[in-house]
Amino acid sequence: MESLVQWFTATLSPYISEYAVIFIISLMPILEVRGGLLAASLLKIPELQAIPICVIGNVLPIPFILLFIRQIFKWMKKIELFRGLVEKLEKRALGKSDRIKKYEFWGLMLFVGIPLPGTGAWTGALIASLLEIDIKKSSLAILCGVALATVIMYVVSYLIVGNIVQ
């Protein structure tokens, strides 16, 4: 992930502000708030400015995923070109859904909040939508998960990596 963050930071920084860079990184699946905060620490953006930008960037796509992804996938499956991709995404997401099915709110919150590869708000929202978990419950669980991920990544990015880089 760090190499992706460095690539996006180096590629975007000459053209847009550092704040826009961390916002865009936080919007992206896979990187999300984890990548945004890592980029912010490497760009020396103060954490009190970086955290709100990264959190907003991370949660902005979530309502759209929760509300529309099943309809979008249904439409995409009708097109031969996209059918395999959608089925692969559904299989991968549902393959990670056991604990979320069992514990719902807490499972979804921990899935989103613990920064491991393949977890995060995007995947959590996709799983919640595919499992048809109540939108209010899933939204709150994802927000709590993003808050947990933010705390963990603040410690990693600013207190650990930030001290190593200096």
Using brief descriptors, characterize the structure shown.
single chain; Sm_multidrug_ex; Small multi-drug export protein; mainly alpha; membrane; transmembrane; 10 helices; transmembrane helix; globular; 2 domains; 166 residues
Explained architecture:
- This protein has 166 residues and is mainly alpha-helical.
- The protein has 10 helices and no strands.
- The chain has helices spanning 2-12, 18-27, 32-42, 47-59, 62-77, 80-95, 98-103, 105-113, 121-130, 135-165.
- The longest helix has 31 residues, at 135-165.
- It starts with a helix and ends with a helix.
- The mean pLDDT is 92.
The helicity comes to over 70%
Number of strands: 0
N-to-C span:
20 Å
Number of folding domains? 2
Structural class: mainly alpha
Average predicted confidence as pLDDT: 92
Shape: globular
SSE order: HHHHHHHHHH
Portion in beta strands: under 5%
Tell me about the largest β-sheet.
none
Contiguous uncertain segments of 5+ residues: none
Q: Count helical runs.
A: 10
**Radius of gyration over all CA atoms, rounded:** 16 Å
Regarding quaternary structure, how should these chains be classified? single chain
